[in-house]
Write a structure and sequence with these properties.
Strand content: 15-25%
Distance between the termini: 18 Å
Shape: flat
Oligomer: single chain
Largest sheet: 2 strands, antiparallel
Number of helices: 2
Radius of gyration: 17 Å
Number of strands: 2
Length: 95
């Protein structure tokens, strides 16, 4: 059987507050947009949104706000960030 899990390094390095903001806020905005577009599509096709998707959007927006607050404070103090983000992809068999 072939490997069913793959780890991919998405972000790795040291960044200024501005660079970290660009990377992280863009990533979160893209995820929010993905869920919003998915919900819009399902509403248009079936008249109902995806179960749990709105709560995921709310969670991502909260995370984005927290990161923006952290980075704003860091910019004022000339702080840099070390960011490591690994995506773990697992293949699941469907029945």
């Amino acid at each position: 059987m072939s490997e069913t899990t793959k780890n991919i390094t998405l972000i790795k390095g040291n960044f200024t507050a501005e660079e970290a903001k660009d990377i992280l806020i863009t990533l979160l905005n893209n995820k929010i947009n993905f869920h919003q577009m998915k919900n819009f599509s399902l509403m248009e096709r079936f008249g109902k949104p995806e179960y749990g998707s709105q709560s995921r959007i709310d969670e991502l927006k909260k995370n984005r706000d927290e990161i923006q607050n952290l980075l704003k404070a860091a910019e004022e103090n000339n702080v840099t960030f070390s960011i490591d983000s690994i995506i773990q992809i697992r293949m699941n068999e469907t029945n």
